[in-house]
Structures are given as C-alpha cells and as structure tokens.
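Can't attach files on this board, so I'm pasting raw text. These are the components:
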Amino acid sequence: MKNIFRASALLLLAVSALFASCKKDDDSNPFKDNTYQQEDQMGRPAINTVFVTTADKDDFNTTIPSAMGSKYASKFQTQLMALNAGYTTNALGMDAATFSGALATDVLNVATDKKTTFFDGTNVLTGRALADDVISVELLLIFGGPDGTANPALTDDHVDANDVPFLSTFPYLAAAH
Amino acid sequence: MKKIAIIAIALLAIFGVYSLFNQQKPIIRTADYSAYMTPDHLQKAEKAVAEHISFWEKKLDEQPENFVYQSKLASQYSAWFKLTGEVEKLYQADSILQLVNERYPNRVGTLQALSANAITRHSFAEAEGLMRQALALGERKHASSLMLTDVLLERGNFTDASILMRDLDARSQFDYLIREMKMLDQTGHLPEAIEKMENALALARKSGSKELLNWALSNLADMYGHDGRIQLSYDTYLEALANNPADLHSLKGIAWVAFSHDHNTAEARRILGFLQTVHPVPDYDLLLSDIAAFENKPDEAMAYRQSFIAKASNPAYGNMYKAYLCNLKASKMGQADEACTIAEHEVAERPHPMSYGLLAWAEYQKGDKAAALDIIEKHVMNQTQEPKAIYHTGVILAGNGHKKEAKKYLEEALGASFELGPVAAMEIKEDLKRL
Amino acid sequence: MKKKNLLLTAIAILSASIGIVWAADHIDAPGVANTSSDITDFYAFQSPENSDNMVFVVNTQGLLDPTASATAAFDENVMIQVNIDNTGDNVEDLVIQAVFNDGKMSVYGPAKPSVTGKTGKVETDATVTTANISKYGSAATIGNKNGIKVFAGPRDDPFFFDLVAYQNVLAGTASGFNNPGSDTFAGTNVMAVVVEVPKSMLGSAATLNTWAVTKRKV
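---
Top answer:
Structure tokens for the assembled complex are below.
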C-alpha cells in the first residue's frame, strides 16, 4: 500500500512537471540563457584528415582558429613532408613553411567581391562552392610540385563531380537519395 | 523426493497465508500493451534493418574493398542480431571488422567497433585490450574513455574506471551521465543512479534519436523496478513501447511485473509465449521455469531449465549466457562441479564481485562451505549490492554458522524481492526462518 | 540477477552503436560519442541566384543511407553555428546560429556574438528566421524573412571523393589513385543546414574568414 501510494505520488509529480515545462515552452524562448560547449569544427575541406595526426585530431578540433597557426604550423609541415618527401614548392609558389602556415589556421576564406571558388585556375581560396573538386586541388598542391606535373598518380582522385547534379535554386543541394 | 514434496507443500501454504495478508493491487492492464503483442512491429523494424543491409551490400558489390561500406554493413549486422537474436550475424560483423582492422590497422573507429562487438559477446578481456589500444591512439579520446569505462565496470575494475572518469569533461552530457549512472548503480547507490538516468533521459528526449530515447526509457524502467517503484517501472515500459513498439525488452519487463509483482502467471506466460514466437533466444525459458516453479509445477520448471541450458550452451553464444548457466547448474541442476568450471572461467573473463559471487555459490553447492566463505569475504561482501550476490552471501554465511550477519544479508535480499522474483523470495523467507 | 544482467547487456548494446558510426574520414570529430554533432562538410559561396547574397552550408551526420535518412533528425541539444571573421584576426565577429525544436529550425543572426570561442549562447535577441525541418521525400520547406533564406533537412551529400583509394595510398597498399575513381559518398545523404544571407549583413571586408562549429548544450 505504501509503495503504491509512493508511486502514484511520484507520477503526480511527474505529471505536474510536464505541465510546468509545457507552460514554460509556450511563454519563453527555449534556447534563451542556455550555455553551449563546442564539439566539432571545420574550415577548409579534409584538412583534419590530411594534415592532423591521429594523436592531435581531438585537440585540433577544439582549438580556436586564432590559436591554430602557432600551435600547428610546424606540425603541418612535418606531415606535409611525410606525405611528400620531395616537396619543394607548389603551383602557388609556396614553400613548405609558407604552405603549412597558410593551412594551419583552418578557416575557409570567402571573397565578398568576386567569384567564390576553392580554385579555378585564376581565383585561389575565395570560397568553396558545391561543385568544386576540392580534394584534387589539395592533392595537386601537396604532390604536384611547382608546375603541377609531379607525381601524376597522386594529384587527382579522378572523382571530378558529384553523383547527382546540384540545383540552380535554393537550397542548391540535391534532394536526398 | 518425499522431502521435496513436503517442502513444496509447506512453501505453498506459507505463500497462501502470505498472499492473503499481502494482497497487492495488480499493476498490469492487458489493454495497455496488447497492441504491441503482434509480430507486425518487429517485422517493420526488421524490414528497416534489412533495407540498410541491402543498401550497403549493394555498395560493397560495386566496391568490394571499401572499408567505409564494410564498417557500415558490420554495424547493421550487429543491429540485426540485436533485433532478431540471430547470433551468426554478430560473428559476421566481427569478421568484417577484423578484415578492416588488418588492412587499416590502428584506426580508432575500427577498434571501437571491434570492442563494442566483443562487449556484446561478453568477451570482456578482449574488449578491454581493444579499447586500451584505441585510447592510446588519442583520437576520439572522450568516446574511447567512456567505452573503456564500460568495459572496466563490467570487469569489476571500479578503481581504474573512477580514475578514467575523473579526467573527463562534458559531465552534463548523456554519454557521461550514463556511465556515472552505471558506476553509482554498481557501487550500491541506486537512488543517485536513477537521478543520473533521469537527467540522461531528459537529454535523450531532445536528441532526435529514437534509439537513444528507447534505450534510456527501457533501462530506467528496469531501474525503477530494482528500486521497488513498480508502478513507475510499468508506466515507463509502456512509454518505451509507445516510442518503439518493437521494444521486446520492455515487453519482457512487463511480463516480469505481471509475474513478480502481480503474481499473474497466466498473463506473464502469455507475454513470454508471444516473445518466444518472434524472438528465438534462450532468455525466455529461464523466466518460464521460474513461473512454473512458482506454480508448483516442478516437472515443467525442470523442462524449461533443460531447454534453456540446451539453447544457451550453443557455442555460438560464447560467454553471453555463462553467468545464467552457472547459477542454474549450481542452484537447480545439481551440477555444482560444472558450475564451478564455468564460474572460474567467468571470473577470469569478468573479475566482477558478481562473478566471484557465482563462484562462491558453486563452491557452496558443491559442499565446500569454507572455500565459499573465503571467496565472499575477499571478493563479494561490501563490494556489490546485486541482489542475487547478496542473497547467496546470506546463505553462505548461514551455512558457515555466521547467523547474525547472515540475517542481515538475507533481509536485505528480501528487500529486493521484486527483482529476485517470488520463488527466490519464498526461498529467502525459508532460509531466514531456519536461522 | 535477471533484471540486473539485462540492464548491463542493454548498456553494452548502446556502446556498440556509439563505436560504429565512424567511417567517414572527412567527419573526423573529436570524441563525440553521439554523432549528431559531427560536421561532415562546410561550404561558403556566392549565391547562384543572387550575387548580392552569400550562402553557407553545414552538413552533419554523414553516410546516411536512404532508410536512415527517412528517420534521421537534428539533435535539439546541438547548435550548428557559422562563424564569420571580418577583421582578419580569425576571431568570430558575426555568428549565424541554427537551433532545433519540435520539427522547426530557428536561425539567429548574422549577429555579433556575446561570447566567442568554444563556449556559446544562442543570440536570442537577434533576427530569427525559421523553417520547418524538411521531411525525407518531400519538397524542401524554405524559411524566408528579411532577405534571409533557411533550409534544414536530409539532402544528397554534395561531397565527392575516393576516400578508400586515398586511405590505400596512405597505408602504402596503393601507389596512386585509380582512373576512374570511385566516389565513396555517392548515393548517401547528410542532414544539411543551408542559410543564404545578403552580403550587406556580413560587413564590408573583401575577404571573410569563415568556419562552422557545433556546440552542445551543457
């Protein structure tokens, strides 16, 4: 009997709590005053995959970009040389230190006054559009040498476009499969 | 034989008087859950997993060496096992992951998945090795730490588990809360554990994941039952079923409420009968044997026990049913020697106070009272609150002449009557009387 | 015993689902057991429809097969945020924040954040644009207010990459890519958030530094 009473009292409490929370939701913004903590971040595509070692991945994902350069530039250079021991400069004329330094701060640069593209032969890192073959650009810059002709087996993954066409209107991404 | 019959009659008489004075208002109402007692819900869930499987199998046909697709397929094979009880799929999942691990060694994700598979197979030593390897690699350290905590708690290594958890942040989040819950539960702080689980449930409600929500609800329902809050437990099972009508765990929980609280054996049998038709795993025989024993049908009870042992001894189940087999062989089958062998293996795989409790119980049933006492003093007493271990501790203490302490343990075990079931509860009362 | 062991078994099962969702290398989250906060990709580009507008895309929950896409949902405990630095110091001067509740996405901003860095608050006093979360297999539901357009829901994963060939190169089991390559992400979906805003709301810098973050409610 006691137990039954206790259980129903609890149920009652639960029910009134339910009403209380419904009321609150109606009256005020459910997101107001919440505190949030970062779990993941991303700037340029695949940077974490290519340049960050397994042991550093967690730290890199939670280091704010303004602190990334000093912390990761030399590590990126080590990783770059591990990937391509023969690296001298790339098609952008960047030596290993310059290239690593540029990538270590993992933000995506976006131009507000011209074409936005990862790389189209003229514009460099002015954004990332859906159709940009970003992986091949990165491979070319890592493995392709000063004129982009070195290591031809490594400079293109030969997947040049998405499997379905993008839309010309908002939201631009193709419908789900 | 005659003696057993007399005891049985005495037990029945005691129980008859007991129930006259303790008429418990029944909790279950068939109308609440009968809509879930149809194979349709499970078939729908199976269809979804079959679709996942055929999608990734087709992708793999196109790219047979694709480890991404292999890993996805392995996770769906595991899901299929969890849904249907088809244990072969668990091994298929494992061998796919082994292949991936050979070709791409030292990948945290593969190691985590392999470890999770080992946990499901109750191969805890293997799981610990894999998780330690994953943790050492550094990537996804938070997840690896949480998963290693799971393994350590299963292995009874509360010290290392506490050390691991001490260094973790994100303590208000679901993943941390449920480990904290497990730690509290296993160290005998059930009310605090329930509080953590309620907090985790609130987060699961907002997570957008029906799986997470269902898991939180059905496990919280179990915990309310452990705490003697049976009505709340039942209501929570119902909510779990409303969220996932294919949730067989919660249906089984309701069968337990029907039996253990309401003593409505007919309804408990009806629910378990349904579960057996849709989910061919050994578990249900064990409950049915308890129900038959309660109804004073010893032959039927024995038949269910034998059926359980036959099914659960299938080598494909590996360690999954070892603890149940050991307990059954020691308590009911007069096979204490075999039970000891199993218990020794279980202690090696899972040196948890519960496993030592089983070993002590098997030794005691074998007749080695002193050895049993030694084991419980070293490895069980004050180290677990698990009701069966408490109960067995009480019996072993009594058998060694420590009556005062035995009484304390047996009374504590009696407080967990709902969890232990009415048959064990009657046995405990008998034991107490004999003190 | 029965019940207790059931509990332990069930917990082990949960761990299984934690460990397995890992495969996409381009996800690479920190130790996020609950993968609802894994970012798969981030895009920023001038609107193909209106050159005065900028589009931001943040994709999460990669490698969803069609069946999974039908039931996938956004985590209401998670905020998806685009950070925009328009002063060149790589600290966010403006944020666009997407949060989810009861089948609806609310997008706050672009607004000056009251907190920068790894913690955060929803800037609830900022302009808010809402949209119902689009359902799998239905037409996109688009929110549109003050020149801002927003979308949330399952979409084709726009990323294309022969991830496996790349991993084989790294593992030393292949000396180069295949031609043609195989798109690991073909036929799979993601949970996408797309926001289009007038460039005029982003300040006057010729170049913005942008990045996407996910933050979980504590």
